[in-house]
Amino acid sequence: MFNFLYKTFLHGRHEITASSQKLPFLLNPASLISLKFISSAANQQSFAVSYLIISCGLSPECALNASKYVRFETPEKPDSVIAFLNNHGFSKTQISVVVKKHPKLLVSDPVKTLLPKFEFCNSKGASRPLLIKLICNCPAILRMNLESRWIPIFEILKDLFKSDAKTIFVIISHPRILVQDPKPYLRPNIYALRENGVPESNIAAILYHQPRVFCTKPDKFREVVEEVKSMGLKPLSFAFVLAVRALSSLSKMTWKKKINVYKRWGWSDEDILMAFRRFPPFMICSEDKITGMMDYFVNVLGLESAFISKRPELLAYSLKKRIVPRSSVAQVLLLKGLVKACSLSRFFACPEKKFLEKFVYRYQEEAPQLLKLYTDKLDLSRQLQNE
């Protein structure tokens, strides 16, 4: 019956009669537009296109594009996949997202291909909402082999984290780690840090937050480690793994470009090296952000460029969300002599609650306008962010 309705729908050989439960798409006002669209694609995976629209909720354009990656002429197999996802808590919207991202999933075997991964995640303590989030973020992982991909990578990560929960967190936060198959890189790169004396806790911390760092080819990764050592960073410090992360993520050309940006603001090679030793992530900032931040600090706040080179962590903050609103408070306090310029790094670095207590509420008597000034700047920042 389902097949008949699709053929009728596509070729117009019979009068279409369907209840809203069977073909809700046909009762939608947009159906006439979609019908014309499908008719033009009737010779190109027409059944798959109509199925993707009617059963998966894809737009005609998305359905036609998705149909290039999947082949089926009857609804049995895709129906079984959709039923499987529905039975495991996926909403219609989530199923639509999954199919749009990875249409090949529709021709999977729910029992042989999908179920083992769900059971594996359940056995490791992944809740249903977390599992749904994982699949929606990167449905392609369901096509990866359980024995050769999922289990080995899970074991490598757990060996370091000593916890199923932390391992699951990393996989959910960075699901493509299962797609890209980092097995040839993970163990050698972890070992490269270990043999250089990097503490297990530091290796785990950087892998927990930035597992992509470890997807670098082992030879290149070792070169990066040696380069970081040559810059004078000590393997025992957490800055060492942050430096490895920064160098691993930047090409030599990009590195040189950023060096030149800082030099245009008067930094010497020694200034840049010292800043990198202190806070390696400042080199990951984009060239536009570096320019915007330095321009604000130097030309708006009137700070010396050298002041920033000694406090490179300031460059990591959001200009609109943190620096501009807080600097409005800082300027008032500096003019009144209530704070000194040397305290500005702590001024921008402290958490929101502590900032309000230490620099706003504390000086309400001397500067009663501070709270309104700060909240107005924050509101303006949010408005600009939403535009």
Automatic annotation (TrEMBL):
<dbReference type="GO" id="GO:0003676">
    <property type="term" value="F:nucleic acid binding"/>
</dbReference>
<comment type="similarity">
    <text>Belongs to the mTERF family.</text>
</comment>
<keyword id="KW-0809">Transit peptide</keyword>
<dbReference type="GO" id="GO:0006353">
    <property type="term" value="P:DNA-templated transcription termination"/>
</dbReference>
<keyword id="KW-0806">Transcription termination</keyword>
<dbReference type="InterPro" id="IPR038538">
    <property type="entry name" value="MTERF_sf"/>
</dbReference>
<keyword id="KW-0805">Transcription regulation</keyword>
<protein>
    <recommendedName>
        <fullName>Mitochondrial transcription termination factor family protein</fullName>
    </recommendedName>
</protein>
<dbReference type="Pfam" id="PF02536">
    <property type="entry name" value="mTERF"/>
</dbReference>
<keyword id="KW-0804">Transcription</keyword>
<dbReference type="InterPro" id="IPR003690">
    <property type="entry name" value="MTERF"/>
</dbReference>
